[in-house]
């Protein structure tokens, strides 16, 4: 009888940077990001995949990182909220249009749910046809999978419309995962 491995080495490209870690085989992706890789922007709210606070992109698709084992993303590209902002040529930062819209529209209260909203909305807007204005149904769909216990969603929806308009006017200048992120080193 062969012994069962309780740990496994994984390699994941996180926010454009190849990262390796040795993780317990039952470690959740959310915990691996936070504890093993030091990326604390991904929040864990419900641990049941309901609230959306832990949403990250795996190969461009939004997933609830509290429902995915870290070993399941071995070899994948993962984008967290830390990977949305990009370094500019002067060493500063350029916020993703969704991040900028959340700031301008005051679309956050306590901020706990914000990373999940930002990642989900950014992916959704970048996947849609930017030549047309966003509909209210599309806005509702983009925010519908995330829960916010502090707001009435009005400013979050306003931020989605603002970001969509900005991206439509300027084009999606900041595609996810294509340039070096501002926070690529790990812990902040």
Automatic annotation (TrEMBL):
Q: In which pathway does it act?
A: Alkaloid degradation; nicotine degradation
Pfam families in the record: Fer2, Fer2_2
Presence of the UniProt keyword Transcription in the record: no
The cross-references to InterPro entries, in alphabetical order and at most eight, read: 2Fe-2S-bd, 2Fe-2S-bd_dom_sf, 2Fe-2S_ferredoxin-like_sf, 2Fe-2S_ferredoxin-type, 2Fe2S_fd_BS, Beta-grasp_dom_sf, Diverse_Oxidoreductases
* Iron-sulfur listed as a keyword: yes
Ordered alphabetically, the record's keywords are: 2Fe-2S, Iron, Iron-sulfur, Metal-binding, Oxidoreductase
UniProt domain 2Fe-2S ferredoxin-type: residue ranges: 8-84
Source species, domain of life: Bacteria
Q: Name one GO molecular function term.
A: 2 iron, 2 sulfur cluster binding
Protein name, per record = Carbon-monoxide dehydrogenase small subunit
